[in-house]
Structure formats: C-alpha cells, structure tokens
C-alpha cells in the first residue's frame, strides 16, 4: 500500500539520517507518494524537536536527492531478459533466497555430493562477477582460475608436479585455502555452464533477439523494425515448442508495449499462437497492462534515451584460456561464444534519468521538486 511505502521510505531516511530533496514525475502516482513522504518527514522532525530529543540532525547544506518513480514510468524493462551474471542466475536458476543447491563431484572417485552455497557478499567471486555481462563473467572466472592454479602451491601438487620438502610443506599449509577457493571456482564455472545450457534449451537467443529488436526499434544492423515485419515471425516463434510459457508471456507483453498501431486482432493472433487461454489468467493479465498506462491501439511514447548510445556490434567473448586439466570441467569456447553483446543493446530509460539527476540536469518541467522546510534545492 502507499502507506506502507511511505513508512518504509521514512524508516530508510531516518536510519541514514537524511532529509532528502524528493523528486517525482509530475502527474504520476509517485508524486502523491513523494508529497506524503515529505509530510511524514516534517512530522517526524517536529516530534524530535518537541520531544526534547533532537538527535535527528541531517545535513542541510548538501541534502541527498530521493527520486521516486512509478512502474507506469517504465513497464518495459522488467520484462526483458538481462545478460549480467546475477540477472541470468536469478532468471534461470531455482534459488531459495540467496541459497543455491547443486551437485558437486567430491573425493577421488568424483562421487556426486549435494552442496548448498550462499550467493552473497561473503563470496568474493560472486561479488566480483555478479554485475558483469555473462560473457565477461565467463572470461573473468576462467582467467582467474588459471592464475589461481599457476600461483597456488597446492595446485602444483594436484597436478603431480615434483616438489621438494619445503614446497610440500608450503603446499600443505595452503591446502585449506586452496580447497575452499577451488570449490568456489568450480561452483561458479558450473553455474555459468548451467546458465548457458538453460539459455540454449529455452531458445532464449531467439526470444531475446525479438525482445531487443522490439525494445530498441532496430535490429543489430541498425535497420528499423516495424510491427508488420515483427508480427509474422513472432507468431511463428510462439507456435513452436520449446519456448517456456513465462517467456511467451513476456514476448507478447513486449510486443504490446513497444509496437505502434497494435490492434485487438494482433493480440488475438499472438494469444492463439502462444496457446494462452482465458482460464489461465494470462489474457486478463495482458488486458491489465492498461492499469499501468499501456494501451493497445497506440504505442506509448518511448522515453528519450531508451536506445543505446551505439548500435555497433560488440566483439564476441574471448576464447577461453589454457587451463590445468583434470581439476574442473570447463565450458568450451564455442558455448561461451553464443552470448553475443547484440542481445544486450537496450538501455533502461531510468539509467538516463538517474544520470541527469546525478548531474543536476533533470528536467524540472517533467520532475517536480519537493523540498522540506529549511531544505536546500536538489538537482
């Protein structure tokens, strides 16, 4: 509820000891929330002052800026598949919170053992890889693993290299750290392999190509895509097997949001091809897009900055490095190369809004500024 959102934001501001300048788009529901939050902050400040416990003393010289947005400002971005490592893991892998359970080879006989790990701040590899494009994440984990096996003394013993007593002693002392790091590298390499396998099984390259072309309005070569050119091939893809229902739903929603001149007959054709029914609630869900400002018969105005700053093709993923054989099974070069940067051309409009806000260039005719009593202006 709006009251719950206001209470939550108030708690964050008080915890951080911030009295922010609040910005929100004019005419949006976020603006209503922004005004109520401002009143809640003023009321809290009054309580602190009259209660004789004025510990809430945020800086007035350089207040933070809190930008509130509503889902209707950008209904498109959450529907698109992303190719950062963290996004792919959360999209494709069944996690329980941040817990990932998998089968790992253990012991000399390589027996399978069920292991559960936490993908969070306690895992330095996860922290390093999670925001990288999957292609860069694969390269990074392979290169880091190669460096690790070259530099670690225990790795030399694992390869059967001849070592003297001092080297053996050093290697034994490093074994606990070696075993822990080897386990993390093995897990992340296995996790990237699993993401790639599921990517292929779910025909996500075809799905995401449609998503990107529709969202950006151009194909990778810069040719504009039009509704009539998209509809036929999209119907064909939806009619084929192998595309999961959730991906079919996302494709139809992306079509409705991005394409100009969408008609009811277009939607009916896509619904039939995707084999949706009234009973499963999907058709009603498509109709409910209107509740966040999406309408069938005219395309919503695309926010400025939605297109990537460049439509040039990026290079493919680099080839995998030479690795110590027998330690872990690694994804092959050909598999890694399936992740083309052309599948990541779209940039969320909020990225450009945030850049303008950080540079104090946010359009004041579009975004209203709400300043608390005694507060300074915000950019």
TrEMBL record:
InterPro entries: Sec-1-like_dom3a, Sec1-like, Sec1-like_dom2, Sec1-like_sf. One of its GO terms (biological process) is vesicle-mediated transport. Pfam families: Sec1 (PF00995). It comes from the Eukaryota. Belongs to the STXBP/unc-18/SEC1 family. This is Uncharacterized protein. It comes from Hemiselmis andersenii.
């Amino acid at each position: 509820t709006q009251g719950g959102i206001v209470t939550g934001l108030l708690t964050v501001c008080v915890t951080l000891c911030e009295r922010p300048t609040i910005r929100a788009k004019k005419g949006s529901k976020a603006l209503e929330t922004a005004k109520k939050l401002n009143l809640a902050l003023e009321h809290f400040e009054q309580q602190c002052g009259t209660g004789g416990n004025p510990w809430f003393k945020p800086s007035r010289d350089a207040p933070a800026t809190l930008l509130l947005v509503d889902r209707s400002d950008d209904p498109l971005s959450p529907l698109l598949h992303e190719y950062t490592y963290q996004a792919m893991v959360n999209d494709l892998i069944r996690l329980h919170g941040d817990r990932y359970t998998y089968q790992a080879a253990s012991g000399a006989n390589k027996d399978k053992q069920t292991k559960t790990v936490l993908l969070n701040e306690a895992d330095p590899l996860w922290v390093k890889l999670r925001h990288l494009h999957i292609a860069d994440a694969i390269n990074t984990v392979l290169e880091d693993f190669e460096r690790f096996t070259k530099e670690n003394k225990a790795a030399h013993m694992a390869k059967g290299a001849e070592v003297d007593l001092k080297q053996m002693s050093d290697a034994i002392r490093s074994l606990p750290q070696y075993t822990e790091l080897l386990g993390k590298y093995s897990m992340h390499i296995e996790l990237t392999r699993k993401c790639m396998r599921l990517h292929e099984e779910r025909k996500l390259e075809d799905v995401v190509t449609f998503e990107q072309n529709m969202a950006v309005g151009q194909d990778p070569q810069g040719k504009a895509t039009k509704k009539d050119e998209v509809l036929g091939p999209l119907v064909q893809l939806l009619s084929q097997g192998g595309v999961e229902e959730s991906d079919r739903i996302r494709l139809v929603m992306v079509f409705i949001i991005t394409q100009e001149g969408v008609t009811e007959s277009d939607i009916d054709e896509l619904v039939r091809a995707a084999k949706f029914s009234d009973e499963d609630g999907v058709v009603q869900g498509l109709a409910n897009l209107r509740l966040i400002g999406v309408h069938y018969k005219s395309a919503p105005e695309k926010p400025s900055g939605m297109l990537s700053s460049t439509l040039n093709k990026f290079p493919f993923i680099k080839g995998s490095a030479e690795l110590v054989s027998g330690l872990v099974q690694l994804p092959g070069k050909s598999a890694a190369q399936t992740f083309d940067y052309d599948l990541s051309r779209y940039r969320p409009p909020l990225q450009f809004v945030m850049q303008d806000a950080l540079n104090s260039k946010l359009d004041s005719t579009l975004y209203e500024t709400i300043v608390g009593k005694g507060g300074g202006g915000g950019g």
